[in-house]
Specification:
It is a single chain. The protein folds into 3 domains: 229 residues, Phosphoenolpyruvate-binding domains (TIM Barrel, Alpha-Beta Barrel), CATH 3.20.20; 82 residues, M1 Pyruvate Kinase, Domain 3, CATH 2.40.33.10; 140 residues, Pyruvate kinase, C-terminal domain (Pyruvate Kinase, Chain: A, domain 1). Helix 1 crosses helix 2, helix 4 runs parallel beside helix 6 and helix 9 crosses helix 11. It has 16 helices and 22 strands. It is elongated and about 80 Å long. The relative contact order is 0.10. It is α/β, with parallel strands linked by helices. Helix 14 links the parallel strand 18 and strand 19. It has an 8-stranded parallel barrel with strand order 1-2-3-13-14-15-16-17, surrounded by 7 helices. A 7-stranded mixed β-sheet has the order 4-12-8-9-10-6-7, with helices on one face.
Length: 497
């Protein structure tokens, strides 16, 4: 069975070598992520060049996802690790000589209020604000522990405004220059944060799709508006599990995936999926179940972070995840074939139309949006009734591909496009494989002939089997999808059905 949920693999010191990158892609990595919190632009540029070269050699369309650092807060330099004891009073501020715990960016201190929590080192150490002055904050240690230089700080109770730092602006310019395929925005709290990033990208002359990382407590209150604004979302369970009680994270994962499903936006589940494989060649049983349950929840993609960036077994981690996903999907498809109901209903047409209002291709389309949704829904229904069929769509910018992916067809979806960058972006979508055409085809019958030839050459279909074709007609006008055709591949060359 062909895997439907996609795998995002983070590239780092353990995987940036050309040989290892090729092995990652052969093992099943679909999207490659670069974490802009680490490394520098020359190094990332070399990695992107290597990714593009290896992808071309393997005949794959591999998108590059650049993950921005975002407004991250950390402790400053401590002379040595310090053990904080419960009940102890400590001060935080800019000057190491005047406070117990210096911070690298003291600007956030003015937003803290009495009674709010300051969490350090992934929440292992918790402080409660007692008072603040112009230069410092005084807090009481609620949960003690050891802290040291550059440990991360989370502020789950505070209203910290979203800002685009100087580093993020430099990284945005780098992403535009290197034609990144996706950008991930960190610490998104509201839809306006997504729009601020989008405006910054457009000011640089590009319109890179944005992945909103949901990792702040405030984002939980605004899930639907963030999903509607972003092009995709990420369940960033690391910081999310620090900012909200851990027992809420599994339910929030389901809520976010369901929100993405309703809006037709891809959802990536991330953090510690196969964490033990950083050091071990096999995952734990709990990790295996975690990956499978993300598939059952309906995730579009699953992400590996340290496992492939810095781990000892990056290729094995990808291969293991691919096997778990295939097994989980096989089980789920068998359930559906036996009459089980989908875990999430297909989104209604009015919900899809509402979610499309921010789609660049759909803004001026009017009623064509609903037509495209109805045609995509009909194609998925037809595929479920025709054995051995494929869905084949033509997409100038990925619009049709996104519509098909949200309906979760039981058969593979192939999307033909002439734009290499669009082909790479399509690769993130659930159950969808991009195929690039070297030139545009202007006539419907010629297009069908090209498709049939490509599918036979690639051995993706056999003579006598059906393909369900979706396209905008007339082709030369580049409309949204408005035509569905069921085509049977000829038994003998030269004869079409």
């Amino acid at each position: 069975m062909e895997r439907r949920a996609k795998i995002v693999a983070t590239v780092g010191p353990a995987s940036s070598d050309e040989v290892v990158l090729a092995r990652l892609l052969r093992a099943g990595a679909d999207v490659l992520r670069l974490n802009m919190s680490h490394g520098d632009h020359p190094g990332h540029r070399r990695t992107i060049e290597t990714i593009r070269r290896v992808s071309a050699e393997l005949g794959k369309h591999v998108p590059v996802l650049l993950d921005l650092m975002g407004p991250r807060f950390r402790l400053g330099a401590l002379a040595e690790p310090r053990l904080l004891r419960r009940g102890e009073r400590v001060t935080l501020g800019a000057d190491p000589g005047e406070v117990d715990l210096p911070v690298d960016d003291p600007g956030f201190l003015r937003h803290l209020q009495q009674g709010e929590r300051v969490l350090i080192a992934d929440g292992l150490v918790a402080l409660q604000v007692l008072a603040k002055s112009a230069r410092r904050v005084t807090a009481r240690v609620v949960d003690g522990g050891s802290v040291s230089t550059r440990k991360g700080i989370n502020l789950p109770d505070s209203s910290i405004p979203f800002t685009i730092s100087a580093k993020d602006r430099a990284d945005l310019a780098f992403a535009v220059a290197e034609r990144a395929d996706y950008l991930a925005g960190s610490y998104i709290g509201r839809a306006r944060d997504v729009e601020a990033l989008r405006a910054a990208v457009r000011a640089l002359g590009d319109d890179i799709p944005l992945v909103a990382k949901l990792e702040r407590a405030v984002a939980v209150e605004h899930i639907d508006e963030i999903v509607a604004s972003a092009d995709a979302v990420m369940v960033a369970r690391g910081d999310l599990g620090v900012e909200v009680p851990l027992h809420q994270v599994p339910v929030l994962q389901k809520r976010i995936i369901a929100a993405g499903r309703r809006a037709g936006k891809p959802v990536i589940v991330a953090t510690q999926m196969l964490e033990s494989m950083i050091a071990q060649p096999r995952p734990t049983r709990a990790e295996t179940s975690d990956v499978a349950n993300a598939v059952f929840d309906g995730a579009d993609a699953l992400m590996l972070s340290g496992e492939t960036a810095a781990g000892r077994f990056p290729v094995e981690a990808v291969r293991t995840m691919a096997r778990i996903v295939v097994e989980a999907e096989s089980y789920r498809l068998k359930q559906l074939a036996d009459g089980a109901r989908p875990s999430e209903p297909a989104p209604a047409a009015d919900e899809l139309a509402a979610s499309s209002r921010r789609d660049p291709e759909a803004l001026a389309a009017g009623g064509a949006i609903e037509i495209a949704d109805v045609v995509a829904d009909a194609a998925v229904h037809a595929a479920s009734k025709l054995d051995g069929s494929l869905i084949v769509a033509f997409s100038q910018g990925g619009f049709t591909a996104r519509r098909l992916a949200r309906y979760r067809p039981v058969v593979p979806t192939l999307v033909f496009t002439t734009d290499e960058r669009v082909a790479r972006r399509i690769q993130l979508l659930w159950g969808t494989r991009p195929i690039r055409l070297e030139r545009e085809v202007q006539h419907r019958d010629d297009l069908i002939e090209v498709v049939e030839r490509e599918l036979l050459i690639r051995r993706l279909i056999r003579p006598g089997e059906c393909i369900i074709l979706l396209m905008g007609y007339p082709i030369q006008d580049r409309p949204l999808t408005n035509l569905l055709r069921i085509h049977r591949v000829a038994e003998r060359s030269g004869r079409r059905a």
